[in-house]
Amino acid sequence: MIKRLEIGTRMSEVAIHNGTVYLAGQVAGDASADIQGQTAQVLAEVDALLARVGSDKSRILMTQIFLADLADFAGMNLVWDAWVVPGQTPPRATVQAALAKPEWKIEVVVTAAV
User: Fold this and answer.
1) In 10 A of CB 8, how many CB atoms?
2) CA gap 55, 94 in Å, rounded
3) Could you tell me which residues come within 8 angstroms of residue 25 by beta carbon, excluding any fewer than 6 positions away?
4) Where are the beta strands (DSSP E) in 26-91?
5) Given the DSSP bridges, would you call strands 2-7 and 92-96 parallel, antiparallel or unpaired?
6) Which residue range(s) make up the domain with 88?
7) What CATH number is attached to the domain comprising 34?
């Protein structure tokens, strides 16, 4: 059985199947923030969505990070490194990508165990 949360006409924010939770790409609500601010917003939303389904960042199986500008890599990593659980860092890919809105600096996709 597949369970979906925050179902919209285009996408759901969360899908759960066989003990795995898949989050839609998360972006900053306040896109006027710098990369550190946007990264903090995105990771806080990841925390909230995972908590909603009974999971947390220590159970992340894979993370995909999309940066509009690779010059923001170091700034993003400052926030990421403070956020991840030591000894529980997930596999991760970080790539440069054109995001859907030009003011977004980062989008993060997470898959985690429930």
Assistant:
1) 9
2) 23
3) 66, 107, 108, 109
4) 60-67
5) unpaired
6) 2-113
7) 3.30.1330.40
Residue 48: what pLDDT?
Answer: 98
Please state whether beta strands 20-23 and 12-17 pair in parallel, antiparallel, or not at all (unpaired). Answer: antiparallel
Total domains, the chain: 1
Q: Name, in order, each residue with C-beta under 8 angstroms of 82's C-beta and a sequence gap of 6 or more.
A: none
- What are the pLDDT tens digits along the chain (114 aa)? 999 999 999 999 999 999 999 999 999 999 999 999 999 999 999 999 999 999 999 999 999 999 999 999 999 999 999 999 999 999 999 999 999 999 999 999 999 999
- Contact between 71 and 34 (Cβ < 8 Å): no
Per-residue tokens: 98: 């054109």
